[in-house]
Design a protein that fits this description.
Length: about 130
């Protein structure tokens, strides 16, 4: 830290994205595991989330998670940038994820389910597919 109190070091953040392979219409949740700075208080640190599909959100202050729903099949790069008065940080490999969204076939019912254990750990999403008939 500079002796005059100037903030010259950008903040750091560590994050987790719960799912990187989803079906059209499903959501992923980004969780801030650790956000810190040598000068700025947590509430003064902004966390910019680019979901890669044209949507973005901010996590401010004590916010620790953000959920995002993907609507179009494709591949998206989700990135998190952390900033304070010292300026922005480039995203690192640890704060960048490649998300793949698969499309749903017309006339097919998909049921999605996942289990969560007592510690809050979510299992992999299971998909059951059934052809719809009249």
């Amino acid at each position: 830290m500079a002796s005059d109190g100037a903030d010259v070091t950008a903040p750091v953040g560590r994050y987790r994205l719960d799912f990187t392979k989803l079906w059209d219409g499903q959501s992923a949740t980004l969780t801030a595991l650790e956000v810190s700075d040598d000068v700025s208080a947590r509430q003064d640190i902004r966390q910019f989330v680019d979901w890669g599909d044209g949507d973005f959100t901010y996590l401010d202050g004590d916010e620790t998670s953000e959920r995002h729903q993907f609507f179009n099949p494709g591949s998206y790069t989700v990135t998190v940038r952390v900033t304070d008065r010292a300026g922005p940080v480039r995203p690192t490999a640890k704060n960048t994820w490649q998300v793949t969204i698969k499309g749903l076939k017309k006339g097919t019912l998909y049921a999605f389910y996942a289990a969560v254990d007592k510690d809050g750990n979510q299992s992999e999403v299971k998909v059951k597919k059934q052809k719809l008939t009249r």
